[in-house]
Write a structure and sequence with these properties.
Shape of chain A: globular
Strand order of the largest sheet of chain B: 1-3-4-5-6-9-10-11
Radius of gyration of chain A: 15 Å
Structural class of chain B: alpha/beta
Distance between the termini of chain B: 19 Å
Helix content of chain A: 25-40%
Number of helices of chain A: 6
Order of helices and strands of chain B: EEHEHEHEHHEEEHEHEHEHH
Helix content of chain B: 25-40%
Strand content of chain B: 15-25%
CATH class of chain A: Alpha Beta
CATH class of chain B: Alpha Beta
Structural class of chain A: alpha/beta
Number of domains of chain B: 1
Order of helices and strands of chain A: EHEHEHHEHEEEEEEEEH
Oligomer: heterodimer
Strand content of chain A: 25-35%
Shape of chain B: globular
CATH topology of chain A: Rossmann fold
């Protein structure tokens, strides 16, 4: 069973349908025990970094994520759900800055391209031995964001380019994350999701 | 390896049915928005926009049903507009499966609603739809409402600047002069808007031939929206993509 973390962020219906398309049982929930014990945990994320972190912490995300990391249970972060796994972000006013979960030490920074958000389909160069991008190197995925990590992180880094190279996806043992929205990336996105599900 | 130019078909929905003539063949229900969304998806649309143009004051329930059914079958971004007035409307649409919402008249009536929506959901969720025509305001481009029939007494360029400061993530610029003429996009209007905003700019209105799309990109558009040329079958999405790709623009070639 796959659990999608419902902490009040954005549209969960698309994520639900996309993960269901793999034939797996999928639940959208904020129940701590389910989130801890599910075979796979999906952390979606839409909106601002600090707002997402604040909501996540209300639902004990720190405890849930740490538990799953310790037990080597799979986690998949999407968009801001990826960003919150890093230590911190440049986004937002200093007064309401929130630290990220900190699985990876890097900072999420504002992209340099003058036209932001980076919105639309961009090509991803898959890292070598990527499981997520098996059969999907140089495919296009749908991005909507203004901030990203521009340094390598985790064991396998996959990259995209928007005036500067940035991290499109990270795979680090049982923790994976994509800056793009696989649930909105057509056939390529569904294939990536099924690659992840097959690895569980 | 770079960001692709988006080609966005627009479905105008009236009481749950797509309007503006359509000539799709082999459809069980030619005016069904969900069926049309599936076809455009299979033809390579990069996003879909639904604009509910129903005259009724309470069109949201019909829109919701269309969005829900589409989002269950089509896994590309959906923008929904028409009758969006409040943070609650946005919340309802996002929960139904919309990824972005477009706002128009309600923002003209009360600009602060832009900031309210952006604070709750982030600016990336909000598309400002601007129906503009040439007129006597400061920039020479005026904002209209009611499909171009009513002047909003607002300068289009000033309005775009103000809305961007309040927090929109994208501008959908519709030329009411060019709309339906097939004489090409209003390039001067695109340039004027491009000059005052750094959010992505979607050009709409006037596409008649393939080179028109390239002209809009040269003028500063990042994405291209069209309705009639696709509905009437003047050309397919893939024709536009092939043309622009041959001119060197990055296009998404995979079909969903």
């Amino acid at each position: 069973m796959i659990a999608i973390f419902d902490y009040g962020s954005g549209n969960l219906r698309s994520a639900l349908r996309a993960f269901e398309s793999t034939g797996q049982q999928v639940v959208v929930t904020s129940d701590i025990q389910t989130l801890k014990s599910a075979q796979g945990l999906v952390i979606p994320g839409v909106g601002a970094f600090s707002a997402c972190v604040t909501s996540l912490l209300k639902f004990k995300a720190g405890e849930i994520i740490q538990y799953r990391v310790d037990k080597q249970l799979p986690i998949f972060g999407i968009c801001v759900g990826m960003q919150i796994l890093f230590s911190d972000s440049q986004e937002g006013a200093p007064a309401d800055k929130k630290a990220g979960i900190g699985i990876w030490p890097n900072q999420v920074v504002k992209l340099s391209n003058p036209i932001l958000p980076h919105m639309g389909w961009n090509t991803v160069s898959a890292g070598s031995n990527s499981v997520l991008f098996n059969g999907l190197d140089q495919e296009q995925f749908y991005f909507v964001h203004s901030y990203a990590v521009v340094e390598s992180a985790g064991k396998i880094a996959s990259w995209s380019d928007y005036d500067q190279k940035f991290l499109a996806a990270v795979e680090d043992g049982t923790v994976v994350a994509t800056q793009f929205h696989p649930e909105k990336s057509g056939r390529a996105g569904l294939k990536l999701i099924s690659n992840w599900v097959a690895s569980l | 390896m770079s960001l692709s130019v988006r080609i966005i078909p627009c479905l105008d929905v009236d009481n749950g049915r797509v309007v503006k003539g359509i000539n799709f063949k082999n459809l069980t229900d030619a005016g069904d928005p969900v069926e049309m969304a599936k076809i455009y998806n299979s033809e390579g649309a990069d996003e879909l926009t639904f604009l509910d143009i129903s005259a009724s004051s309470n069109q949201l329930p019909t829109t919701l049903e269309v969005v829900q059914k589409t989002a269950e079958q089509v896994f590309i971004p959906l923008t929904v507009g028409g009758g969006v007035r409040s943070v609650n409307d946005v919340d309802t649409l996002l929960r139904a499966g919309a990824d972005k919402v477009s706002i128009n008249t309600a923002a003209i009536n009360r600009p602060q609603v832009i900031a309210e929506i952006a604070q709750r959901f982030g600016q990336q969720v909000l598309v400002l739809s601007v129906d503009a025509k040439r007129g006597n305001s400061k920039s020479g481009f005026e904002v209209t409402t009611h499909g171009g029939k009513v002047l909003a007494n607002l300068d289009a360029i000033e309005w775009v600047k103000q809305a961007c400061e309040l927090g929109v993530g994208e501008i959908l610029l519709n030329s009411m002069d060019a709309d339906g003429t097939k004489a090409g996009f209003d390039l001067e209007m695109i340039k004027a808007v491009r000059a005052v905003t750094n959010v992505p700019l979607i050009a709409s209105g006037g596409a008649g031939k393939l080179s028109d799309f390239e002209d809009a990109l040269k003028a500063g558009a990042n994405a291209l929206l069209a309705a009639s040329v696709f509905h009437f079958g003047s050309f397919k999405i893939s024709d536009v993509k092939s043309y622009l790709s041959a001119k060197g623009y990055p296009m998404r070639t995979a079909v969903s």
